[in-house]
Amino acid sequence: MTDTRTTVVVITHDRCAELLRTLDRLAELPERPEVVVTDNGSTDGTATAVARHHPGVRLLRPGRNLGAVGRNLAIRQVRTPYVAFCDDDSWWAPGSLSGAADLLDRYPAVGTVTARILVEPDGTEDPIVEELRDSPVPRPGWLPGPALGSFLAAATVLRTDAFRAAGGFHPRLWLGGEEELLAADLAADGWWLMYADHLTVHHHPSRARDSTVRRSHGIRNTLWFTWLRRPLGVALRRTLHLARTVPRDTASLRAFAEATAALPWVLRERRVLPPEVEARLRALEPAQRDSTARSYTG
């Protein structure tokens, strides 16, 4: 059942064992997708191991850790109409890549398709799935699944041309909620983002992660996105809400300090979203206030 419509892009950094497990799973998929890996400056022998065990994988070695921009680098190599993102500790279920491509083929106004996430080794649903399934974003009658205001990179298939036209991941955001800005820009370009419950991604969280740094970047990136794209009143309210609700610790303080220090470039790049896209984001705000799955507690 080889399917040539989708290329899988993976970024990795010093998680050789997890990456090899993911590549093993991707190699077993009936779709037989092309796979591009950006090794973000690993020092644990990742590149050598990939070349030895998966010589068919296209391996990019920028020589430093580019964060999410490693995906931008990989997509320069993509020649298929669709691209599926995948972290080095996650993998797509058999048939799900083809299922996402079928949706994108059938609905030309859909730009991204996000799958259900099962957390391994127990196979339980990630808490975020319930929020995706019950998304309050208003959707047109033709959309075959819930409309989303953003997407999760490790569980999403996108139109390659739409990703490129929107500019890809912003280089300053690095990692941690980096999808939110790109998602808004895709919506501003006229694309719909959707969730598909019949598609599945497996996630086996790596132990090699710094959750405190990731949380700090998540808060910072949320602030940057808010200041870059939301109307002034909304941006002020969202900033005050975050200041009241994030944990009172060093990571949060660092996030606000980094965000504030970047105000000159943020103001230069500020571009408020079209009203129809802003309306979608406002529909999400009550759910975001009550969310436990996406809280900034690490």
Automatic annotation (TrEMBL):
Domain Glycosyltransferase 2-like: start-end pairs: 7-130
Q: Name one Pfam family in it.
A: Glycos_transf_2
Q: Which domain of life is it from?
A: Bacteria
Q: Which residues cross the membrane?
A: none
| Keyword annotations of the record | Glycosyltransferase, Transferase
Name the Gene3D superfamilies on file.
Spore Coat Polysaccharide Biosynthesis Protein SpsA, Chain A
Keyword Isomerase attributed = no
What InterPro entries does this protein's entry cite? Glyco_trans_2-like, Glycosyltransf_2, Nucleotide-diphossugar_trans
State the Gene Ontology terms under molecular function.
Answer: glycosyltransferase activity
Entry's PANTHER family? GLYCOSYLTRANSFERASE (PTHR43685), GLYCOSYLTRANSFERASE EPSE-RELATED (PTHR43685:SF5)
The similarity comment for this entry is: Belongs to the glycosyltransferase 2 family.
Q: What is the name of the protein in this document?
A: Glycosyltransferase
